[in-house]
Amino acid sequence: MGFSSIDALVNAITVSGKFNKTQWNKVTGAAAYTAGRWYNTFLLNGTPIAGNYTGTALNAQQLSDASQGAMWHGGNVSPDTKHLLNVGAVTAVATGVPSTLMLVDLLMYYPGINMNINTLQTLTNGVGLPRYASGEGVRAFLEITATTGATAHNLAYNYTDEGGVAGSVNPVTVACTASAIVPHLTHSGTAANNYGPFLPLANGDRGMRSVQSVQLSASSGAAGTAALVLCKPLTTIPLTTLGVQSERDLLFQMPSLPKIEDGACLAWLMFTGAATVANTNFNGYLDQGWN
Q: What is the spatial distance between Cα 37 and Cα 156, in angstroms, rounded to a whole number?
């Protein structure tokens, strides 16, 4: 039902105990990150432990708060509604700033996309979106799960939009970045026709329900793989200063109180404003309340 007033919020937290604080930590791993690209912390070690994209290749798989790698946010609260109250993040490594973190609800993915063939790869949708079923506001990204080759290649995709209309395709050329490291969003970067963090939608579309196929313009030259991931963006926070925690008050400072759906699989996407050295740590918290 949300919060009708500040009094209602205070009462829900202090009297009814409807509050959860999530502490999280992620470390980028053995490879340096390139400035101007997007990465997904879901596959990184830390708290929670690294997630994964398991399952039959090209078959849709749902994600939830029970999935490995999901941040715990207090469990299901229906018929109450849960909202983000505050978020914070900090890094102790100089090249970790400036950067931007985007909190997303990971919904569904298609694993095992072969990045070394240029034939059409048909995706199987045996399941649908577990949350945001209409697809409104749902976006997609292609994430490298095993390193690709250096041959330049573009990505074409065919999807069903938020209105249930099938046959939407990429409206522009989408170039993938060669030799991308895990867990890079391969279409992001600073080159021509790079897009990030999300794949472009056709004119007038506001989201997607599912994806029907993907195809590369050329083989990458190495037996790399990727997962096509659908998510719902929730909020962002910039990191500007080494060792100083950035914080966002989502009630007073930026009034929005993003809703966290029951079963949400929360993870951070990261945009690197500078070349980020290996084994860079990021830490922070999420505060949630419900009523």
A: 20
